[in-house]
Amino acid sequence: MRFAWITAVKDWRRHRHDPLGLILWIGLPFIVGVLLTMVAGGKEGPQPRAHVLVVDEDDTFLSGFLVGAMSQDAMGGLIQAEEVERESGRARIGGGDASALLIIPEGFGQAVLEEKPANLHLITNPAQIILPGIVEEVLSVLVDATFYLHRLIGEDLRELAAGPPDGQNVFPDARVAAFSVKVNKIMDRLSRYLFPPAIQLEAAPEDDSGESGGGLNVALLFLPSILFMSLLFMAQGLSMDFWYERDKKTLRRIVCSPQTVVAFLTGKLVSGVGIMAGVSIIAISVGYAYFGLRFETLPLALLWTILSGAFLLLLMTAIQVFTPSQRAGGILSMAIMLPLMMVGGSFFPFEAMPSGMAAIGRLTPNGWALEQLKRVLLDTVEIQPIALSFVGLVFIGWLLFMLSVRRLATVFVRD
Predict the structure, then answer these.
(1) How many C-alpha atoms does 193 have within 13 Å on its Cβ side?
(2) pTM confidence score
(3) Domain ranges of the chain
(4) Which of 203, 254, 323, 358 has the fewest other C-beta atoms within 10 Å?
(5) pLDDT for residue 29
(6) What is the 3-state secondary structure (H, E, C) of the chain?
(7) Over the stretch 338-369, which tens digit does the pLDDT of each residue have?
(8) Tell me, what's the pLDDT at 18?
């Protein structure tokens, strides 16, 4: 163990004199993570909102109701409607200043009351895809609502559209009362379908103490993704160290000396895991503080991340020692690492991937370990599964370690 520790200290000193390598391993994923977090809207998550410019040429109660139905408050913040003139609206939508332009033509309200054809002109922004689609869906829902409303009280609406009887400025009291009674009976008949609704929602009070883990948002999903990207970069870079040791004849001297290859490889592993542990402690601690996660799960998250880093380092080491040259080892390790990053949830969280690709990604080594870390961060981990995961990770890592030891003691050193 003394020789293993000397080997680890020697590597730490050598890496200290190569700060650029450490900066690249740590800085690149960190920069990517910051950019993706900013794109995702920070820790509060994104708030998609369609900006709709409305040209109301009808200027009636129903056209005003349509604008109000599409307002920000009515649609839960998904749509923000702004009334503009036709020329101004066309110029702004042409310049990409909104998600859509809605033109309500003159006679729209009368046509709706009489159940006659009426056209709403919707011009969408071709530079956007999701937000204009939300606007179209909202309008289609309003069209369906108008259809069913006419099936219930269409005759009364047409009578209202015709206006009061000749010689009167308002409808007779009896007609207004009859209409009210009819609406009341319809609501009573539909009450068993509408009240209570088929789906019940229970509002839970917000926990301001910070003990709830901060909630799930898109930015939080990138934390384990970027962390495992950094671990993969470090594992690939540290595994290339064996070619440096071979070129300096260190491996040949180890085989000829009383020291064992096991002790030497253990020292290299301790050195690499030490660097990974330092990065993991800083990154996860900052993430816990930033997202307000429960600090009770921090030790488990650190332990799992460091163990996963050791596993990835052993995997990359096995790849290096079984390749015939340094160039082949670099190409092969990069060819394996980049697809693992892309499919294994480092570039995009599994929640943002197609279900089929996400299912494949969760079967990759880094994807599987990433999912376990995500459960720890979200405080949804169970003791028995995570304990079995620890055992499995240690066992497979031990197999990779012994495989690399055997290769180092034979072919890799003689070459």
Answers:
(1) 5
(2) 0.58
(3) 2-43+217-414, 48-185
(4) 203
(5) 64
(6) CHHHHHHHHHHHHHHHCCHHHHHHHHHHHHHHHHHHHHHCCHHHCCCCCEEEEEEECCCCHHHHHHHHHCCCCCCCCCEEEEECCHHHHHHHHHCCCCCEEEEECCCHHHHHHHCCCCCCEEEECCCCCHHHHHHHHHHHHHHHHHHHHHHHHHHHHHHHHHCCCCCCCCCCHHHHHHHHHHHHHHHHHHHHHHCCCCCCCCCCCCCCCCCCCCCCCHHHHHHHHHHHHHHHHHHHHHHCHHHHHHHCCHHHHHHHCCCCHHHHHHHHHHHHHHHHHHHHHHHHHHHHHHHCCCHHHHHHHHHHHHHHHHHHHHHHHHHHHCCCCHHHHHHHHHHHHHHHHHHCCCCCCHHHCCHHHHHHHCCCHHHHHHHHHHHHHCCCCCHHHHHHHHHHHHHHHHHHHHHHHHHHHHHHHHC
(7) 888 888 888 778 877 888 888 898 889 888 99
(8) 73
CA 157/CA 149 separation, integer angstroms:
9
What is the pLDDT at residue 310?
A: 92
User: Which CATH code fits 48-185?
Assistant: 3.40.1710
